Amino acid sequence: MKAPLSWIREYVDLPAGVSLDDLTWRLTMLGLKLEGLHHPADEITGPLVIGRVLTLEKEPQKNGKTINWCTVDVAGANGTGEPQGIVCGAHNFVEGDLVVVCLPGAVLPGGFAISARKTYGHVSAGMICSASELGLPDDSFGGQDGIIVLPPGTGAPGDDAFGVLGLDDAVIEFEINPDRAYALSVRGIAREAALGFSAPYADPAHRDTPAANEQGYPVVVDDAPGCPVFVARSVTGFRPDAPTPDWMARRLTQAGMRPISLGVDITNYVMLELGQPLHAYDRDRLAGPIRVRRASAGEQITTLDGVRRTLDAEDLLITDDSGPIGIAGTMGGQTTELSETTTSVVIEAAHFDAVSIFRSEKRHKLPSEASKRFERGVDPELPTAAADRAVALMVELGGATDDGGVTVVGAPPERTRITIPADLPARISGLDIDAGTARDHLAAVGCDVTPDGDQLTAVVPSWRPDLTDPYDLVEEVVRIVGYDTLPSVLPAAPAGHGWTPVQRLRRRVGLTLAGAGWTEAVTYPFVGEADWDRLTLPADDPRRTALRIANPLNNEEPLLTTTLLPGLLKALARNVGRANADIALFEHSLVFRPTGNEKAPILGVDGPPTAEEWAAIEKAVPSQPMHLAVAVSGQRERSGWWGAGREAGWADAIGAVRDVARALGVEVDVHADSSAPWHPGRCAAFRIGERVIGYGGELHPSVCRAYGVPPRTAVAEVDLDALLERAQQVVPGPTFSSYPVAKEDVALVVDASVPAASVEAALREGAGELLESIQLFDVYTGPQVGDGKKSLAYALRFRAADRTLTEAETTSARDAAVAAAAERTGAVQRA
């Protein structure tokens, strides 16, 4: 809402010392957020003065154009007192007229600099200005066909023209919250200014309006809930060619509206002034009584914007015997609009249901200044005053005659009554607000307040439909006292319950990986179809089935991810591209696995969801398992003076998952496997029992190229929920024995296809409880073991907690381990 300062001051007598900054700050503190300040004078620099045309000589030019060579009296404004010679191409003025002159050195809006220059054989020292050149409405001060011509007596030559043109009038722009519809008017803003400075306020809506009579234009309201109040007034003898006065055109422009014609401009002016939208009909084009009803399905109307619209059965309409003539509270129709021949006018001032107007506006995508106010809630007691104000302006400015007819259908609803404890504002705000202060402030807002012991009963003013409960009244009292005076009191923190068991386990996962040198990454959960192709996923891979986002941030990534690998690989590529080549990343986050049956119900707004609706909502939510993924490339152990480093590989990715499983107290088996996007010969599956929970290993070379990561980058991804389900909240620590360790090494020959992990598991099981540790320290393939075979050498360490083991005990445990490996994997001990 834009409001000129001069217009606000018409209704509130602000103290003399109140500056524009003081006013805007106080209004902001009262809840009217300042959006901007507009100073038209700031766009014009240099001398802009009134001049009188002394001579005017018309000089035809070779190009067919006729220019005026003028001498203009600007008194001493030019520093010499001599008449100013100016060339002007406009022809809507004569000798003796008062005009606006921009002298050399001035700069007009748009950075247009004025200087003395030779043109058409003369030195033109300045410019006689048009309205558009000064940023004013084109028809201001009679300038619709050219330059501005000031009325006689406006001022004297040489006088400053800024005040005459209203260029020194600041315009304040506010961002009005939806619950403050009354502030979408100068009336409401001036009321807030008066409230902020305890200044006298003159309500422009306080008028002596005539009572309803039988002479008014006939109106029938078939839908009283949709239109509780409808007021109609009529004038005759209106002059359609009467110009809109400069002061009105200027204020409309300052408020952001374009002057159109006097009849339309008056309705817009009253709407901006009082906040009540109006509509004017050409009475001679009306057929029968005005009727307010709901639309019939399929009805059509051509609105004022020239669009033919098909109406909905819920649309509230204004009709006559010919059919629809307007969508109520939104926009009128073309058939009854004012024209250049209109002499009889019917003025509509009605109150419409906010919900109906909002739905019609959204349904037809037809926002308007009227609907913006109606959908927020207009004062239902305002129509009679607004209609009377419009009639008075048409009589005064358009030469019309009030025909005396007044139609009023319906009555405004009763005002809301709210009772609150007198000390409620103090208890809620923490301020020292006594009952008298609360009563006075509520009265200042416009409430009729009645004290009753320790309670206050307030009758809410008709222009505040947002005040509905006791705490709304508390807010009104506190905002007048001042939000800036509220004490800063932090609420007492509730006693914490600590982390949940799952949160503790997830934190253990992060600490384990961070302690092992991995860096946590947090990536966006958005992917595109191209990511599935980069990962070389088969067409039937379930990971390709993903939820599509209705309004994606990026059209190339409109899907919710089903795997953490795309985001992690992009993060790794970004690091490598910034010279951070030795990088180990991990992420644990949700992925989204839809089933195809997700369909959320559309709920009503008249109550909370039922148990059945909640169940349907839960069913529509896709599965969101927690995954853990790691990615590593470059050197895992750095090179230096101490020697050569070690390149990261598949074992690091698999080892990270094993470390996490060990920290959670979960036994995970690792088996050779093949799955995209891993290298088919360097991929392992992680299993808990018979359940595969993920994969790890070296990425396929084509995937490395697709994501721009180094060759032989290793990644792993597992279902973290599966690990957490079996995790131990407290993992038993290792036991230590003070007795010496017994060392035994064995070398076993097995088929090349047998996983080393299977051999290790068999050895561990066969060795029994005396086995303290087992480690694979050598793998050999070659002629000594034969084709298709490999030799695996393991270091076995035995120890007892209560004694020193004998050689017989150690040998027996070793032999049992070898026997178990032979039985389960076909291993043969190498000589």
Summarize the structure in words.
The chain has 831 residues and is an alpha+beta fold. It has 6 domains: 2-39 and 170-197, Phenylalanyl-tRNA Synthetase, Chain B, domain 1 (2-Layer Sandwich); 42-165, OB fold (Dihydrolipoamide Acetyltransferase, E2P), CATH 2.40.50; 219-410, Phenylalanyl-tRNA Synthetase, Chain B, domain 3 (3-Layer(bba) Sandwich); 417-485, Phenylalanyl-tRNA Synthetase, Chain B, domain 1 (2-Layer Sandwich), CATH 3.30.56.10; 501-725, Bira Bifunctional Protein, Domain 2 (BirA Bifunctional Protein, domain 2, 2-Layer Sandwich), CATH 3.30.930; 742-829, Ferrodoxin-fold anticodon-binding domain (Alpha-Beta Plaits, 2-Layer Sandwich), CATH 3.30.70.380. Helix content is 26%, strand content 27%. The protein is built from 21 helices and 42 strands. The strands form 12 sheets. A 7-stranded mixed beta sheet has the order 28-31-32-38-37-36-35, with helices on both faces. Strands 3, 4, 5, 6, 11 and 12 form a 6-stranded antiparallel beta sheet that branches. Helix 11 (435-445) packs across helix 12, helix 13 runs antiparallel to helix 17 (650-664) and helix 20 crosses helix 21. The radius of gyration is 42 Å and the shape is elongated. The mean pLDDT is 92.
| Count of beta strands | 42
Residues in β-strands, percent:
25-35%
Sheet with the most strands, sense and barrel status: 7 strands, mixed
CATH H-tier superfamily of the largest domain: Bira Bifunctional Protein, Domain 2
CATH topology of the largest domain: BirA Bifunctional Protein, domain 2
Number of domains: 6
Helical content (DSSP H or I, runs of 4+): 25-40%
Alpha-carbon distance between the termini?
95 Å
Q: What strand order characterises the main sheet?
A: 28-31-32-38-37-36-35
Rg from alpha-carbon coordinates: 42 Å
